[in-house]
Structures are given as C-alpha cells and as structure tokens.
C-alpha cells in the first residue's frame, strides 16, 4: 500500500475536481449541490459542543505521565528507567481507580504532580487512551521492520516538526490543512460568525486550518486588536477614520481587495469578540479559580470565557487549540516534567470546573496530544524521542474512570520474534496500538461529524475499522 495523499480527501479537492468536470461539460449540475448537501447533513447543531486540543510541544514522556503502579510492573519499570523512575511510594495520591479493573492486576498512577487530574479520573470526568500515535495502517513489529510499501510507516518518525504535523494533519511538515480545521469546515455553517469556528490561543497552527475554516488567533487576554483602527492616530479621530476607510474600501486590484477583506473581517471579528468577552471578565466567577503564573491556565481561561460568550457570538460548534511547551527533556526529566505536569493538571482541572459552573461540562471535551512519546530507557538524565504515548480526555461527556486501548507490557528487548515484545521498536519506543486517526475519529463523531464525512477529516480512516483497530474507541458518550 502506498501513502494516501491527504489532500485528495479534502472537500476543496472534491470541489476542484467537480469544477474541472463542469468546465469540460461532463459534470451533472447536481455535483456541486451534492457537496453542499453533504456539508449540511454533517451536523444537526441545535446544541453547543466544543473540542479543545491541548498540545504538549516537545514530546511528552509517557512512562512518567501514566506510570505503571502495580508492584510487578513498577519493579520492571524501575529496573529499566533507573535514575529517572518515580518511586512507587510517591504515587499513592495519584493512583487511578477505573470502574472496571484492568486484566492481570495491571494498575496505573499519574505523575505525582497531577493530583487534580487523578481526581477527575477517579470521579468519572477523565479517561486515559493508552498507547496512541500516528499510523497510516495497523502495523505489527515485523511489518514495521520490513518497511515495505504494503505496510507504510508514518513519514519521518521521531522528528519533532514532522510528528507534530502528522498528529495534526496526517502528513509531514508542509501540509496546509489539519483535522481540526476540517472539522471546522463541516461546522462553520452552524455558527453565526464562521470565523469563530476554529480558535487558537497559542498562535498559528495548521491543526485549525481547513479548506474554508480559518485559524482565528487570540491572546490569553482576548481578541488581538489592530491598534491604528481602534484608537486615534496621532491624537486625531479624523486620521483614524481615514485609515479605517482606506483599510476597508473595495479596491480594483484583486490582491489589494483581498487584503482589505481580510482586514475588515479581522476588525469586525475583534469588535464582536471584545464586546462579548466584556460580559464575562476574567476577574469574575467562574474564571478566578484558574492558577496564576501558568500560561496554559491563562489560555484555557480565555477558552472558558469564549464558551461562556457562545450565545452572544452565535456559536454552536467550536474547535480550540492551546499548548504547553518544554517537553523535549533529554535531560532534567524529573524536574522539568514535574513542573509541566503540575501546570497541565491544575490548568485542566480548573478548566473542567469552569465548564461545570457554566453548565456545559458535557458539551466540552479537552484532550491532550504531543509530538510523540519518549523512550522507556533512560539516556542518563532524561529520555529520547519515541513514538506511541498515553493521552488524557477530560469532560462531562467522556466515559471516565476508564482506560481505552491496550496496556503495553514493560519491556525493551529488541527481539523480532518474541510476541511479548511486539509492542516496541527499540529502547522502549512504543509501537502504537491505537492510531491518532482512531483517537481523532472518536472525538469527531461525538462532535457531530457524520461517518460518511470522516474520510474528509481523516484521510487514513478507511485503513481502520477492524476489531483490533476500531474507528470509534468508545471513550465518548
């Protein structure tokens, strides 16, 4: 099997091909209408729903995030990790108690700094997806080793930029649209202001770029203003008015006119967002409980305020992007990750409580993602680039207090034959047993994407659907 070109699965490509057929006189008049019907049928957005991607840049160390806790597995984990292993005695407060225990006495705990998220898990508001990572097709260890065209690997494994892109777009760096943006493509007709379908509080991201949907960028404090259009210039209201007129008037030159259209859209959207957020100030409940000196918490507080303002903004479906960096811990893993895990846990815990207070906890789902997991083996003071990883889903619609996917054994043997080691590809790098495509499809289906539209959101979804690799992992109600 060759790589599937994700661009071939986008609506833009479909419309382009339809337009080409129409130009040649061979297309039926209904071709374009079928595309419109598909978009209209994808959602029945009478309620509100939001997806919030929490991206952990640098490659989060999975083994010190969701930690083997039963005595047998923890002993194996400690023997392999050595000086970067977290002692079992430190994990009692973050031990995870699933409603249905894992087989063979398997137990996990979260990092000791993640008491908030452990409590959310144990009270049913969070779940763990085990061993998820990019896959084009399901792979065994032998198929991975063969590296054949019939069993393709994801492109450029273990590269930061490329694996960030594969997580977000299903393709290596340079791809221009992501699955969050394609979900936004389907949702945007249900929002009064379609620009607000996809919102990033963490700068520009391909994850939120669709064929039509745009990544609208805001800061942690709110909408980004065009200063010269929002205040007097050189103390003159007349100069400001002249600039506004110049910036928004219709122009004869195509590029100038398009630039002015973008400026007008940004100016109008900023005003709408600012006015809506003024009704939900950051220093009012339920937004005051977010921890200070925590950049991720500040981003999520802004997301909570935008969700609170959903009626003022006419939003029914939204995809948000926030991020936390500092996970490329080739050294100082114990100290660096402890800081990051506390920030992640306290920020997500406060965010979930805000959605509870706003009455939308079952309408908002946050989920983590990262470049890749890291090696189970230590390089001395840290861990190196890996592949599969464990991730968290948080929200009232999450089927919480549960693990999804397959729990990998603790092993770093390089045997190609021993079935015990089919999970690893060297140094304790996990061969994913769940693909990002499955993870994303489960979230997209809850959000409202029709099964027939999943291929336009996730180009490799047709390669999954077996008993061992279901399209829906079951973690969403």
Tell me the layout of helices and strands.
Elements: H1 11-24, H2 30-41, E1 49-56, E2 66-68, H3 71-81, E3 108-110, H4 115-122, E4 126-133, H5 141-146, H6 160-169, H7 179-187, E5 198-200, E6 216-219, E7 222-223, H8 227-230, H9 237-248, H10 254-278, H11 295-308, H12 310-313, E8 317-324, H13 333-357, E9 364-370, E10 389-394, E11 403-404, E12 434-435, H14 436-447, H15 454-457
Parallel strand pairs: 1-8, 1-9, 4-11, 4-12, 5-6, 5-8
Antiparallel strand pairs: 2-3, 4-10, 6-7, 9-10
Helix pairs in contact: 4-13, 11-13
Relevant terms:
477 residues; alpha/beta; Alkaline Phosphatase, subunit A; ten-stranded mixed β-sheet; 15 helices
Describe it for me?
This protein has 477 residues and is α/β, with parallel strands linked by helices. It folds into two domains: 6-221 and 285-463, 3-Layer(aba) Sandwich (Alkaline Phosphatase, subunit A), CATH 3.40.720; 223-281, no CATH class. Helix content is 36%, strand content 12%. The protein is built from 15 helices and twelve strands. The protein has helices at residues 11-24, 30-41, 71-81, 115-122, 141-146, 160-169, 179-187, 227-230, 237-248, 254-278, 295-308, 310-313, 333-357, 436-447, 454-457; strands at 49-56, 66-68, 108-110, 126-133, 198-200, 216-219, 222-223, 317-324, 364-370, 389-394, 403-404, 434-435. The strands form two sheets. Strands 1, 4, 5, 6, 7, 8, 9, 10, 11 and 12 form a ten-stranded mixed sheet that branches. It has a two-stranded antiparallel sheet with strand order 2-3. α4 (115-122) crosses α13 and α11 (295-308) packs parallel to α13 (333-357). It starts with 10 loop residues before the first helix and ends in a 20-residue tail after the last helix. The model is unreliable at 8-42 and 415-419 (pLDDT under 50). It holds the Pfam family DUF1501. This is Tat pathway signal protein.
């Amino acid at each position: 099997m060759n790589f599937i070109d994700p661009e071939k699965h986008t609506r833009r490509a479909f419309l382009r091909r339809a337009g080409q057929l129409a130009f040649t006189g061979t297309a039926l008049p209904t071709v374009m209408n079928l595309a419109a019907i598909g978009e209209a049928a994808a959602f029945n957005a009478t309620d509100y729903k939001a997806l919030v991607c929490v991206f952990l840049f640098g490659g989060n160390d999975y083994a010190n995030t969701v930690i083997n806790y039963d005595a047998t597995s923890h002993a194996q984990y400690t023997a392999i990790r050595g000086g970067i292993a977290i002692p079992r005695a430190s994990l009692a407060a973050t031990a995870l108690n699933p409603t249905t225990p894992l087989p063979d006495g398997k137990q996990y705990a979260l990092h000791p700094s993640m008491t908030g998220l452990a409590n959310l898990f144990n009270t049913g508001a969070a779940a763990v997806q085990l061993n998820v990572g990019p896959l084009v097709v399901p792979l065994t260890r032998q198929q991975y080793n063969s590296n054949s065209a019939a069993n393709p690997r994801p492109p450029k494994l273990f590269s930061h930029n490329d694996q960030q892109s594969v997580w977000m777009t299903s393709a290596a760096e340079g791809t221009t649209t992501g699955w969050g943006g394609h979900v936004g493509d389907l949702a945007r007709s249900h929002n009064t202001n379609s620009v607000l379908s996809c919102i990033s509080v963490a700068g520009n991201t391909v994850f939120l770029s669709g064929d039509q949907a745009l990544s609208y960028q805001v800061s942690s404090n709110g909408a980004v203003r065009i200063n010269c259009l929002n205040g007097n210039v050189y103390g003159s209201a007349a100069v400001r008015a002249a600039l506004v007129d110049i910036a928004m008037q219709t122009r004869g030159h195509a590029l100038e006119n398009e630039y002015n259209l973008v400026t007008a859209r940004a100016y109008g959207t900023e005003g709408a967002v600012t006015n809506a957020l003024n009704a939900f100030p950051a220093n009012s409940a339920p937004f005051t409980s977010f921890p200070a000196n925590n950049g991720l918490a500040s981003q999520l507080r802004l997301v909570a305020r935008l969700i609170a303002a959903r009626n003022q903004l006419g939003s029914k479906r939204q995809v948000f992007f926030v991020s936390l960096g500092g996970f490329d811990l080739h050294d100082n893993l114990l100290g660096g990750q402890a800081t990051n895990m506390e920030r992640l846990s306290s920020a997500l815990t406060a965010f979930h409580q805000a959605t509870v207070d706003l009455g939308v906890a079952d309408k908002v789902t946050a989920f983590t993602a990262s470049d890749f997991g890291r090696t189970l083996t230590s390089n001395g003071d840290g861990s190196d680039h890996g592949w599969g990883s464990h991730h968290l889903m948080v929200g009232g619609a999450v089927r919480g207090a549960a693990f999804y996917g397959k729990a990998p054994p603790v092993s770093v043997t390089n045997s190609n034959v021993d079935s015990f080691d089919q999970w690893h590809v060297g140094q304790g790098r996990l061969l994913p047993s769940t693909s990002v495509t499955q993870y994303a499809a489960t979230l997209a289906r809850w959000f409202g994407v029709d099964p027939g539209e999943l291929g336009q959101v996730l180009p490799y979804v047709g390669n999954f659907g077996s008993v061992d690799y279901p399209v829906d992992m079951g973690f969403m109600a």
